[in-house]
Amino acid sequence: MDIWKSKVLPKIKLVFVKSAGKKAAAAAELVKSFDESKEGINGEFQEKKADLLPKVVEIYESAPAPLKLLIKERSKVSGIKKNSAAITKFFEELAKIEFPGAKQVSDGISKVGPVLLSGPIFSTFEKVSTLLPVAAEEATATKEAPAATEEAAAVEEKKEEAAAAAAEKKEEAEQKKEETTTPAPAAAETAPPADAAAAAAEPTAEAAPAAEAAPEAEAAAAPAAAEAEPAKAEEETPKA
């Protein structure tokens, strides 16, 4: 027992430490190589997106639920250790369809394991998530939202124009109605009333017979005046 503790166990620990150190160094090289090739990986991904989409969705659908959540969220490095077997298989499947960068990551996983390659793994998961149906629907909804807003604004504008036109027509109809019901202007007011015209005509009618009778009266009075003058003259002559 003392030999185990004093000689065997320390040697085993030393082997693991050396092994861990070698893995860490190898992992660092793999991460550096992946980062340097990111630009080429991104360009290749953009070119092959349309062809990759149905294949990636099929691989994703066959993955276990915890791995699906990790692919979408990509927030916990501890999730890589918990799902190391599923991640290893997932990258093997991606490498088969020639997903950009997947072969490089898959080879690295086989050498140092997935835990030390969290950066390349999450970078690949991010590209995978853009091809999933939910992400595609969200992108479509984002594009359609401004169009829907513009359409709603156009509909609202048409409603306002229709309401304004209806109000204008209503106002015109009311004006026409007022014009038809308003009495004719003051021609009737300026004309003298019928009673006044009759009253004005009556004195003229009465004056006409009077004017006609005046010469007759004068003619009748003239002989009488002539007869009266000799009689007066006789009275004024003195008796002898």
Automatic annotation (TrEMBL):
The name this protein carries in UniProt is Plasma membrane-associated cation-binding protein 1
Under InterPro entries, the record lists: DREPP
In its UniProt entry, the species of origin is given as Sorghum bicolor
Q: Which GO terms describe its cellular component?
A: plasma membrane
Bias (Low complexity): 138-152, 181-228
According to the lineage, what is the superkingdom?
A: Eukaryota
Q: What is the lineage of its organism?
A: Eukaryota, Viridiplantae, Streptophyta, Embryophyta, Tracheophyta
Q: Where is this region: Disordered?
A: 138-240
Query: Ranges of Basic and acidic residues compositional bias?
Result: 155-180, 229-240
